[in-house]
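## retry 2 of 3
previous attempt timed out at serialization; input unchanged, resubmitting
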Amino acid sequence: MSTLDEIKSKIDIVDLVSEAGVKLRHAGKNYTGFCPFHDNKKTPAFVVWPETGTWRCFGQCNEGGDIFKFVMKRESIDFKEAMQKLALRAGVEIKEYTRETPEQKEAYENLRKLLEDSIIYYRSHLFNNKNIFNYLKDKRGLTESTIETFGLGYAPAGYDNFLKHFSAKGYSEQDLINSGMLSEREDGKVFDRFRNRIMIPIRDEQGRMTGFGARIVDPDDIPKFLNSPETPLFSKGRLLYGLDRARKPIRVADQAVIVEGYLDVIALHQAGYENVVSPMGTALTEDQLRLLKKYTRKIVLALDPDVAGQKAVLRGLDAARSAMDKEGELAFDARGLLRNESRLQADLRVASIPDDLDPDEIVARDKDEWKTLIENAKPIVTHVMDSLAAGQNLNDPKVKNQIAAQILPLIDDIGNPLERDTYRQALARMLKVNESALASTTARPQVMRRKPRGEETNQKIEAVVAAVNPRIKIESYCLGTLLKKPELLYRLDRKLEEFGLSPLAVEDFEYTDHQLLFGVLRLAVEQDEKEHQNYLMSHLPEALTPLANDLLSQTEKIEKTYDDKLLEDLLNRFLDLRRTHATSNVNQLRFMQEDDETQGGANIKLYQEQAMQFTRLLRSLDLAKRKIVKRQ
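## retry succeeded, writing output
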């Protein structure tokens, strides 16, 4: 992932725009407000799309872009300055560009293929082992369809079954180690990492294989759950199990639910609750919460009572997060979560599971009970207050002081002053004391270990830093192809004009760095003094040079592709990009029309005219697509 993509992934555009003084109102999964770039405050024509990290003004400006464009326009600075400001805000170090070679990319693809082959291997062993298969069906309540859908398997006992099987298929020992499927002793001998365990494939949010989680079969084995080690593909602090299947349900429900175990996720999905994910038995990280925030700001932690109840809550108030980062135990760090909630502008709540049951046991007992538990989830501070007060003598002054000493630091960590006052009042009522008495209560010093800067990012997992919006990848491919073969731009323009469409322009790209790079490319092909690529590299802003080099490095495989085929591919992709953009704008304008009608309809004509323009564009794009299909 490039530095620019990492900056984009770590800065929430809703927060950025709100901090600039724009009052945004939630409108479906997007946000609307008054444009900060012109004086008209009668028309809320400014829209922010959190999922893509972009914004647009449908009013006087008629402009849009991403976080870089917003800062550039807001502060009247160039791209380099905007990048430096946002990098500082995101905590991203702008370092010298290091090129990822085609050999490295090929190696990652080879590892993914090995992991996909591993699923087939483990699945065959599961279906040949009736005891394990019946355990999943009868004891865990999973259907054959669910077992197949989630790719569950079984790793047979023995230290070299996997090694022998995949060595025979042509994989090298180093490949098997790099994928995390083999472990290595100090004496250099290797052995199967997963033995006599139920195997659960783990994919990233885009559905690509990254590794495995493995649950014991023999109750005497330890640990209960074993994950793949850190590899170029697998970083458990940046992955959420089940997110590849839960993304759309999370958007629909506008809520994500976090549970502790893999099998809990699978059972809940089977029961129809598909907005559920798991952090794979580790303490929740800010990267994981950022992943979820792309789809919703409402997050519920549905924690096992033994972990999220009294014992873990008390430990979570005092202990460092690292002390709780144990396999198979979802640590509940109340202060850490509150800080994340404040930083990410999210709504984090806690739902406790009753009767010492796991989530899969809850839905097996009563499917509707799960829905009620999630609906009754409490804010973090309320949950901690209730947990600390449970079974205590609240008439004892010492107990009151102890509880207050632990709750008040949590309340002080809350960013919103109104919420702080509300919780202080609730605490005073619970303890039956005057609120003024709480002000004099001193809390024990809280020692919170901060990880050294770069501890998490200084890993060998550059490939999985964060989720990237699919549109970025399509734009990157198209732009990289045009950088490699600028002469295709002329032909692409002519093809678009044949269909009655406008030539390619910076507006066809949604992200500022892509727009700026295409602008220089357009100038390069329109001049005739220098060879296109020489002109391009000599006129490219320094801040965009790493991006250009990166895009060019990704085009190695198109060298042998015929230009006619590349042209057809580019044409289809740009038509799809334009259609996605137009559809999104039409939907947003229709929503704004409906909203405006409830307030008198003063701006309805403006919205209708703009919606008609995009609707006509959609018809032209669909007609172009049909003509292309007929020619093929």
